Amino acid sequence: MSSITVGLVGKRAGAFVSGLQSLPDVRITGICEPAESARAALGERAGVPAAAQFAGYDALLDGARPDMVVLGTPMHLHVPQTVQALERGIHVLSEVTAAVDLDQCRTLVIAVQRAGRRSGARYMMAENYCYRKDVVLVRAMARKGLFGECYFAEGEYVHDVKHLHTLPDGSPTWRATWQVGKRGCTYGTHSLGPALEFFGPEARVLTVSCVGSGVHTDPKHPHDDTCIMLCQLNTGGLIKVRLDMMSSRPHAMAYYALQGTTGSFEGERGFGDQPKLWLGGQETGPHTAREWRSLWDYEEHLPEMWRDPSEEALRAGHGGGDYFIATDFVNAIRSGNAPPIDVYRALDYTVPGLISEQSIAAGGAPLPVPDFRHLSADVEAPVASAALR
Ligand SMILES: NC(=O)c1ccc[n+]([C@@H]2O[C@H](COP(=O)([O-])OP(=O)(O)OC[C@H]3O[C@@H](n4cnc5c(N)ncnc54)[C@H](O)[C@@H]3O)[C@@H](O)[C@H]2O)c1
């Protein structure tokens, strides 16, 4: 088994330390973080000595020469930093979203393709919500056909992060520009990614229609308190995405729901709620006879990864997502298989949100979502399709 050295970039990359350290022959050998105190904390968390703690990205890439980087940096830096790494033959695990505009999407696809030809360096987007236990279980059951034909899903990310839009001195953070500095579903992958996967690895969004609630809570930003994105799928289904990063309320992780012809799932919304499931076939008797059961009554359908998770996995953030995503990427690099959320799947989750910015400006008009697998002559067809288990 070949050893893999890793560089962590930006303090959020520290979330992946336990997953990386659990793998044989994987060593975190460098970090990069411009802010001094965050750099020291990240170095300590990852067990990286001061000599391998860098303030600049070039210094990490050329000084530590890692085999792989984890990008936990502001959203608009993901693509330029990915390109820099891939050009040096370094694998990239990038935080969400994959890109902040359509030009960046094209740049990303071309860079990943070039790296695939020249060095074999790989790219994966770290959409950790796809690895949550409830999401993994419902996805597995949907793919076994237990919901019948799936035709409607919901994904909601409702998280009051107003305090992250400004620094203590009142100056704006990157979120003020890239998340709430414009209208639309600017941070949609946590909601859309898991919901899209319920429909299968080939499902993608064909058109997007986006409307907003208007600005009520924090008039400093043009971003709607709540934004709704309706996604029509190539499979014939519909996904409703809600993004709300403004409304004043308690946090309740993300919420998902799925409806098929023979089953229904509604996730938990917090405050002691239970994720619930009904599987009953297509009988036409009185609906009063139908009863929800706990999702956890169906654990026999859990894929291997969630059957006997390690302590590290259970302790990792986002319901284990931060752990499994790191291990899945390293396993993909070692096996030579396409990573489960490769560049095309990353853009399937990201591009609808970018198109939603145009739709909301056009009063909610449904707009087509480009497929970066077939965008133009300089973008080749993908060699292998990726698939989440
Ligand atoms: N998947 C998830 O659950 C999840 C959760 C939180 C954040 N995120 C994503 O993680 C990323 C970071 O978010 P955050 O909340 O930690 O932001 P943050 O602003 O709190 O931290 C960003 C860090 O990046 C550093 N940075 C800035 N420029 C850099 C550069 N050129 N090179 C290296 N580091 C640089 C900053 O000093 C800062 O410490 C974003 O893309 C966000 O979307 C994902």
What features would you highlight for this structure?
389 residues; alpha/beta; Dihydrodipicolinate Reductase, domain 2; nine-stranded mixed beta sheet; six-stranded parallel beta sheet; 11 helices; 30% helix; 20% strand; globular; binds nicotinamide-adenine-dinucleotide; Gfo/Idh/MocA-like_OxRdtase_N; NAD(P)-bd_dom_sf; GH109
Please tell me about this protein's structure:
The protein has 389 residues and is an alpha/beta fold. The chain has a domain at 129-306: Dihydrodipicolinate Reductase, domain 2 (2-Layer Sandwich). 30% of the residues lie in helices and 20% in strands. It contains eleven helices and 15 strands. The strands form two sheets. Strands 14-13-12-11-7-10-9-8-15 form a nine-stranded mixed β-sheet, covered by helices on one side. Strands 3-2-1-4-5-6 form a six-stranded parallel β-sheet, with helices on both faces. β4, α4 (78-87) and β5 (91-94) form a beta-alpha-beta unit. α6 packs parallel to α8 (189-198) and α8 crosses α11 (343-361). The longest helix has 19 residues, at 343-361. It is globular and about 70 Å long. The chain starts with a strand and ends in a 21-residue tail after the last strand. 48% of the residues are buried. Bound molecules: nicotinamide-adenine-dinucleotide (NAD).
